[in-house]
Amino acid sequence: MMTEGTCRASIFQTNISYLRKKKGSAGLAYLDNYLKARGLKLTIAKIEEMKPSEHIPLSTRIVFLEGCLALFENDIEKLKAMGREAPTASLILKLFIKYFVGPNSAINQGPPLWREHYSIGTLEVIKNEKGIGVIGLKDFKVSKIMCHYLCGYFEGVGVLCRAKNTVCKETKCVHDGADHCEFVITWEA
Ligand SMILES: [Zn+2]
Known about the structure:
Layout: E1 6-8, H1 9-37, H2 44-49, E2 55-57, H3 58-71, H4 76-89, H5 91-97, H6 103-108, H7 110-117, E3 122-129, E4 132-138, H8 144-160, E5 164-172, E6 181-188
Antiparallel strand pairs: 1-2, 3-4, 4-6, 5-6
Helix pairs in contact: 1-3, 1-4, 4-8
Bound molecules: zinc ion.
């Protein structure tokens, strides 16, 4: 199945920096081979040469994340950890976060940030209270691997906001029959 839609190169570039730090050039070579074996023309070097705002198909994003998961010996927690580190590594997010007072205002920035980075799907704030936020992701049935990654990413936003013990759990998922994905984010308020 071809997945329509695109996302920004910056998302990949942040992950590549993380992988270089954690897995070195051997890890990146492994990922390059994985992308090639899956029939992709895009290489790590090419992604790094792109402008951060350039668009890459979501179908490529999925193969990339699957390659990362293989590199992490299929340990989904390690994939989530990569997502968790991404907000801290992103310059754009760091700039945004300067104006955030705390996790609740960060959650409110979720929908515009999603639109900025992904061409399909809508992020909606369902609940945003002291110590808890609920985010819905609609019209985005792409791959379960994205849900795992995003869960880690949302926890990372909590870290960036210096919220204590931020935990994200996906409580509804389109891949388990729900009509949208729902992420419940809690922290010590
Ligand atoms: Zn999901």
